[in-house]
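Why do we care about 3D structure at all? Because function follows from shape, and shape follows, mostly, from sequence. That is the central idea of this module. The next example makes it concrete: a single protein chain, its amino acid sequence, and then its structure expressed as tokens.
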Amino acid sequence: MEIISASIDLTKIDKSKIVEGKKGKYYNLTITVFDNKDQYGNNVSLTDKQDKEQREAKEPKNYLGNGRVVYSKGQTSQAENNSEPLEQDENKEDDLPF
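And the structure:
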């Protein structure tokens, strides 16, 4: 188990990537935990989730924020993917404050 404390710059959120799911609205992102800390003590990076084509084309990542691991038992295991893909409702009005 690890606990990560992070901040996201809401002005960098691409509202077109907000996905309507059965239980709410979601924004898919990638959280990367690095072995080394930066000059501010951060070792976590948050970016927009990229699809396979974007990764293969080496498109630049949209960095949303950063953070740090504040608690760790020392070993993180990979979780299984048991979730179904979310469907986006293009006609749904967005009521988010940003």
